[in-house]
Amino acid sequence: GSVRKNQISSGINAEYGGKCKNIGLSNFNIAQIEEVLKTAKIKPANLQVESHPHLPNLELLEFCKSNDMSFVAYSPLANPGSMFRKEDQVDLLHDVDVLKIAEKHGKSAGQVLIRYQIDKGNGVVPKSASPARIEQN
Questions:
Q1: What is the pTM (predicted TM-score) of this model?
Q2: What is residue 125's predicted lDDT score, i.e. its pLDDT?
């Protein structure tokens, strides 16, 4: 509501002692970003949202590009270990198409999913609890 909009605008427009030169947003939709763009003195430079082949957020990505905002994808592996994962939700690390691409190029499924984002020009924030997978990614 309007309270949240006012809080966002107040926070973004605060001067931070003149030290704030860039801001980023996380988990904002297009309508929310448009509101920020209308009211903020400092234009957002970045948006970070969940993005992977099953949730590509293409409209949001195009909106960011058209507004000179970088797009950073978190959970590019679709968070396979999440306790919120639905029973019917495919684990992208075991997705047949992803595995075919990985095998064809001699890469891991995780590397393919990260490259998917890089090829779109996106920043990527992969996460893993496994030290071996962190190094591999």
A1: 0.77
A2: 86
